[in-house]
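Changelog-linked ticket: zinc ion example.
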Amino acid sequence: MANEPQQKLEQLKQRLAEVWDLNQALWVLEWDQATYMPDAGGAGRGRVMATLTSLAHEKFSDAEIGHLLDALQPWAETLPYDDPQAALVRVTRRAYEKTVRVPTAFAAAFAEHRAGTYQGWVEARPANNFARVRDGLERTLDFSRQYADFFPGYEHPADPLIDEADYGMKAQTVRALFTQLQEALTPLVTAITAQREADEEPLHRGFPADVQRAFGEAVITDFGFDFNRGRQDLTHHPFCSRFNTGDVRITTRFREDDLGDGLFSTLHESGHAMYELGVNPEFDGTPLGSGTSAGVHESQSRTWENLVGRSRGFWEHYYPKLQATFPGKLDDVSLYQFYRAINKVQRSLIRVDADEVTYNLHVIIRFGLELDMLEGNLAIRDLPEEWGARYEKALGVTPPEDRLGVLQDVHWYSAPIGGVFQGYTLGNIMSATFYNAALAAHPEIPNQIRQGQFGTLHGWLRDNIYHHGSVFTADELVQRITGAPLSIDPYLAYLRGKYGELYSLPA
Ligand code: ZN
């Protein structure tokens, strides 16, 4: 029968839609836990999330999905590689084969455990109390290693975890790329910090949170973030959630004594959100219906936060508006002083506050710690001390307390240990790669940014990256867009160009 593949495809999509409905409910609960839920709701919420995780897992690992994929495979292989139907079969199979290896009971138990450690972290961080989360973290490490063991034959126990977030990447490849990057960044940091420091005092003058919020929301509206299909709320650790193509939410936080914190986190999360909002709506409710990897996702948040939002051209347009938004606060600060303040490079303790040049060193430290923990070469009880030692070595600073060290990031308390940090730096590397391609296609983009116009850039990103959802892997996207494999060179050239000028370094 000629239409048999179409019938089977419909059956497959129907099953996938049910799985994604359950996932969507789960994501709403996660979003709620991180925004409005009272802390005391943690235990009860963990149970609901475990139930939904196990239902979604059970439905997705149903043998009938495997049969449908088997039946569709020969037909899908006759279609062009970039055909969405071929991609649906290919990408669903990849996810399905991973899911069936992980027992439902394990997935549910791990989800419940993580909801508990997240709640523990929310209390432990302000209290500076690592002991509060230590046992939980030990179990997380056990869970993470058990997860890896469902994929025998790996080269490194981090590989299955990395593969989950950045499909196709391995610990070995990432380590090689990161070593190369660290070797280039370390002398750059040394050269910059030998120069006169930028003065960031103007950012700490006290800026009312509600006014900050309105300013940031006006900027991302100009970017093209659609508030009819999204919203912004407050949280501890900003993130973006996609529920469906008509509902993508971002979160942020504001500090009245730090203008940069809330603003750049809003710009950052809007980049994640615009990616999700730009995915072909026909992919909703299937594995194609969201961004393709952690790295590509981060490349989009970094594009809007840094390549656009921390550029001089951007502030030529927005700085007079910012000055007018906070009357009297910034009158004595020139555009150039402000531009230097928001791009101050310094050896610091907190990753999310780090400048573009040192940021990746924070990530590389965490990635190395993850590999060592998974290898069994670093015990959780030794983690705070080892954290400090590696900061001293790579950045020349030691956290005086765990709140400024091992307790600062939510990730190990809400996700597996392994696979969660490499995407940040891969994303930075890719951001410059993709941005260069956009500029090559549209050399007028920098001038438009100077006028507060972002339609050309947004349109190029939508057509070349967002629209495809997960049809292409990160490697395939890079190859399609640049004609070459991922390289750190465009990113290094960007950093050297921008910061060489800011800090008057010899060319
Ligand atoms: Zn991000």
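Closing comment: Example verified and attached. The chain is about 65% helix and 5% strand. Residues 4-35 form the longest helix (32 residues).
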